[in-house]
Specification:
The chain is mainly α. The protein has three helices and no strands. The protein has one domain (20-100). It has helices spanning 7-39, 44-68, 72-100.
């Protein structure tokens, strides 16, 4: 018989999952934002500052959404998958920028 997880353990699991998955998602968002803005002609430090400021709002929104989601594993999969996809896209943009110079 499977052991039930107590409500304290569920909350701790949600907090840890939200922090880790949202870190990955926000990191991908900021990387894509910096690469995209720089490719669009924005100066690097301006792009970095803007993406970081927006990243704070993205992290907060995704953190709250993680608690509101019906399925914690699905929320983590969406956040980690989205973060990995954005980070991969940012790497592709950076590689194209390096080739252009």
């Amino acid at each position: 018989m499977a052991a039930r997880i107590s409500s304290r353990q569920q909350i701790a699991l949600h907090v840890v999952a939200a922090l880790v998955a949202n870190y990955v998602f926000t990191w991908g968002f900021i990387a894509l934002g910096v690469a995209g803005l720089f490719a669009a002609g924005t100066e690097f430090h301006d792009a970095e500052s803007l993406a970081s400021m927006l990243g704070l709002l993205v992290f907060l929104t995704a953190f709250l959404w993680t608690f509101a989601a019906r399925s914690l594993p699905r929320a983590c999969l969406v956040l980690v998958g989205g973060g990995a996809l954005m980070a991969g896209t940012a790497s592709l943009i950076q590689a194209l920028l390096i080739r252009a110079y």
